[in-house]
């Protein structure tokens, strides 16, 4: 029965850790610059675009759409990488041994 209790406690800690990590990530920002700063994008940790700047000269550029798509995709990749790193860190923190104690 002690094993089940340890598993339940670890699951609870993991759930709390995930919630905390998600809240923290929402506050983080990633910056992306595309086309020699023609397009600048800031994306929040919840994948919402916080700001988007398009250089006046870039507005007429034939590849503007490609630059915008690239900026958004790079922002998504950066946020996803941050999420992955937080989950890996959380998994290390939650790791418990058979006695129910966190492994060091």
Annotation keywords:
104 residues; alpha+beta; Ybab, Chain: A; 3 strands
Describe the structure in brief.
The chain has 104 residues and is of the alpha+beta class. It has a single domain (2-94), classed as 2-Layer Sandwich (Ybab, Chain: A). It has 2 helices and 3 strands, in the order αβββα.
Show the helix and strand layout:
Layout: H1 2-27, E1 29-34, E2 39-44, E3 49-54, H2 64-94
Antiparallel strand pairs: 1-2, 2-3
Helix pairs in contact: 1-2
Strand content: 15-25%
Tell me the total number of β-strands: 3
Ends apart, CA distance between termini: 24 Å
Number of domains: 1
Name of the CATH superfamily: Nucleoid-associated protein YbaB-like domain
What this model shows, in words?
The chain is rod-shaped. The C terminus is likely disordered. Helix 1 packs antiparallel against helix 2. The chain has two helices and three strands. Strands 1-2-3 form a three-stranded antiparallel sheet. It is of the alpha+beta class and about 100 residues long. Strand 2 and strand 3 form a beta hairpin. The protein has a single domain, classed as Nucleoid-associated protein YbaB-like domain (Ybab, Chain: A).
């Amino acid at each position: 029965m002690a094993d089940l209790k340890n598993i339940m406690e670890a699951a609870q800690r993991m759930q709390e850790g995930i919630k905390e990590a998600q809240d923290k990530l929402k506050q983080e920002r990633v910056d992306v610059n595309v086309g020699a700063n023609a397009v600048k994008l800031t994306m929040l940790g919840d994948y919402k675009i916080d700001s988007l700047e398009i250089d006046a000269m870039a507005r007429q550029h034939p590849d503007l759409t490609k630059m915008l798509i690239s900026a958004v995709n790079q922002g998504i990749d950066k946020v996803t990488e941050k999420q992955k790193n937080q989950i890996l860190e959380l998994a290390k923190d939650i790791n418990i041994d058979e006695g129910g104690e966190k492994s060091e």
